[in-house]
Design goal:
The chain is mainly alpha-helical. Helix content is 60%, strand content 4%. The chain is globular.
């Protein structure tokens, strides 16, 4: 989910209160004292010393009981520290004291949205809009929240109506682009963001950042390089254009330039966690000097969960240096911090997996049978993250008959546009209630999305690993589709997930190896279910270990079962100069090798809970 711009002002409501008080001479000493106390709080906040900031703020609250602005500030800080229940309690109390303060309603609503409570956020945004119909913050916040609540058509209508009356509201254009991006309307997102380039410097900077990143996502590496190069000149004081250049260079397999740009970003901003993490993508970036630099950045960041990626970078460097116990501790700390961020709380996945089996099984497939094949044949590559899906796509995309679609996010984008509020709570159940005509619209949406795929022709891969959750629906919607199941040793898969910064994945919110092991077990069970109910050979299983040990015979079997003729170019996939934007970019630029096998042994002394969670998915010879 695209986050709202961080526009919560931590002291504006309180300063407004002080200005009102200071109109009365008798109140001046008290107001001046409160102002000094709050400046101390904000100083601790800016220094990322959140523990001290909360302590000071509680002292202020104790001395000024019943002051809604102070409660509001406390709630915001508690939210930033991951104390979500306490934050909502403080914000609700402030709201009861001052129910008509629009800025309180907006802040509370934004926080509820970040905590993935969109239905509660909608109530507050609507109330704020009623109180101030011309408030751009209320309109934009409501539109963002409606999308999160599965109400895309209403959000689009709301913003379009606003922009008709306020065409120079560049912040609204920026948000419209964000919302289009969320539901997969990528050309529309680019068009909206380009409207912002003539706005304020701050908003233009945000739009440029988004445009460059979307170009990377679309595989337009040269365009992204141009965008970030221009940004590096325009915003020469900022580190993010250098991070963008590093990402563009990595997609083009120019790892020397990637490292150079990331090093420049770190030199400009020590807390540039993206740049530090980029440096760990190649062995050359994992040095003792780098470890020292990341530790210094961590010391500055303190316990702020927003900087969890610094701990991931430290773990990867220490792992490469052979300090595996220290690396494991850094990874553990990173996940603990990330779990305190809004939107990253652990959610029990077992109910969703069970719902997929009950809603998208034999009855659903039989009821939706007889759909026509799509004009372009998809090959869906599914499996756990870090199981070899990127490698398999690189191999298939080297075949002259196949184009690489990358992670097309088909189901999520389609549900966001059509699912409504029910689907946001139960996507498999909602899809299970559809008929073949509805599924035909899913197929057509996928076909239209191919306009952003370079070289799309007769066969296109779609490599979103966790599409396995909806495989029954995809099998019904695309009767001619091929399905490739990437399966890797459970220990290696979970360790790789644990030591990699995953983005946009259900598995990304799993904070422990034990929860990752449970997820792997349930994912394997679900894939076994699909193999049982679909026709034989509909799913081609590719064990990662077979692929790296015996690439020639494994690739020949893969092509044969997908109905593709043999082509030796598939063995030389690493020489193809196409864009790759996943965490496996470095690995797929090298010939097939066994370097990633049995990596779990480096952390063997820490894997008891993981092995217990995996159960029968741990081969007997690897229990030791």
């Amino acid at each position: 989910m695209v986050s709202l711009p961080r526009s919560i002002c931590f002291n504006a409501p309180i300063r407004a209160l002080l200005a009102q008080r200071m109109q009365h001479p008798a109140n001046t000493p008290l107001a001046a004292a409160l102002l000094r106390e709050l400046d101390q709080v904000l100083g601790a906040d800016r220094a990322h010393d959140l523990e001290r900031a909360e302590t000071l703020r509680r002292q202020v609250l104790q001395q000024h009981r019943g002051e809604a602005p102070v409660l509001q500030q406390l709630g915001i800080l508690l939210h930033r520290r991951g104390r979500f229940d306490d934050a909502r309690q403080a914000l609700s109390q402030a709201e009861r004291i001052a129910p008509d303060r629009v800025e309180f309603l907006l802040d509370h609503a934004r926080i509820l949205l970040e905590q993935r409570r969109p239905a509660e956020a909608v109530i507050r945004f609507r109330r704020a809009q009623r109180l101030q119909p011309r408030s751009p913050q209320a309109v934009s916040g409501l539109a963002q929240t409606l999308v999160a609540n599965g109400q895309w058509p209403e959000a689009q209508k709301l913003l379009a109506h606003w922009l008709e009356r306020h065409p120079d509201d560049h912040a609204a254009w920026l948000l419209l682009g964000d919302l289009h991006s969320q539901v997969g309307d990528l050309p529309e997102a680019l068009s909206a963001w380009r409207m912002v380039r003539t706005g304020s410097r701050e908003l233009a900077q945000s739009a440029t950042y988004r445009i460059g990143n979307l170009q990377l996502r679309l595989g337009e590496g040269d365009a992204a390089w141009q965008t970030f190069s221009e940004a590096a000149g325009e915003y020469s004081e900022a580190a993010w254009p250098r991070c963008g250049l590093a990402a563009a260079a990595s997609e083009r397999a120019d790892f020397e330039v990637m490292r150079r740009e990331a090093e420049q970003a770190v030199a400009m901003e020590e807390l540039s966690y993206t740049a530090w993490y980029q440096l760990t993508m190649t062995p050359e970036g994992c040095t003792e000097e780098a470890a020292h630099g990341v530790r210094n950045a961590i010391a500055r960041a303190g316990a702020n969960p927003e900087f969890w990626l610094l701990h991931m970078a430290l773990g990867r460097i220490l792992d490469r240096l052979g300090q595996h116990d220290e690396a494991f501790a850094a990874f553990t700390r990173a996940h603990a911090l990330k779990s305190r961020l809004p939107g990253h709380q652990y959610r029990d996945f077992r109910a969703e997996f069970a719902r997929a089996r009950s809603s998208l099984g034999c009855d659903f497939i039989e009821r939706t049978r007889a759909l026509e094949p799509s004009r372009t044949r998809p090959i869906f590559i599914v499996g756990m993250p870090r199981s070899g899906t990127t490698l398999i796509e690189a191999i298939l995309a080297s075949h002259p008959a196949v184009a690489a679609g990358g992670e097309m996010r088909l189901v999520g984008d389609w549900v966001a546009r059509h699912g409504g509020t029910v689907a946001t709570a139960d996507v498999p159940g909602w899809i299970g209630g559809l008929d073949r005509e509805n599924l035909a619209t899913l197929r057509e949406a996928w076909q239209r999305s191919l306009r952003t795929v370079p070289g799309a022709a007769g066969i296109v891969t779609d490599k979103l690993p966790e599409n396995f959750l909806f495989l029954g629906a995809l099998a019904a919607a695309f009767p001619d589709a091929g399905f490739v199941y990437a399966r890797r040793n459970g220990l290696d898969t979970c360790i790789s997930c644990f030591t990699t910064a995953l983005a946009g994945r259900r598995a990304a919110s799993l904070p422990t190896l034990e929860s990752l092991g449970g997820y792997y077990r349930e994912a394997t069970r679900l894939m076994d279910f699909w193999k049982d109910i679909l026709p034989p050979r509909r799913i081609v299983e590719v064990p990662y270990e077979d692929l790296v040990r015996e690439p020639d015979s494994t690739i020949r079997r893969l092509l044969s079962e997908l109905g593709l003729p043999w082509d030796s170019a598939c063995l030389d996939f690493h020489e193809v100069t196409r864009s790759v934007s996943t965490a496996s970019v470095y690995q797929v630029r090298r010939p097939i090798n066994t370097d990633s096998m049995a990596q779990w042994r480096r952390f063997a002394t820490h894997l008891g809970p993981l092995k217990a969670a995996l159960g029968e998915n741990v081969p007997a010879e690897e229990h030791g």
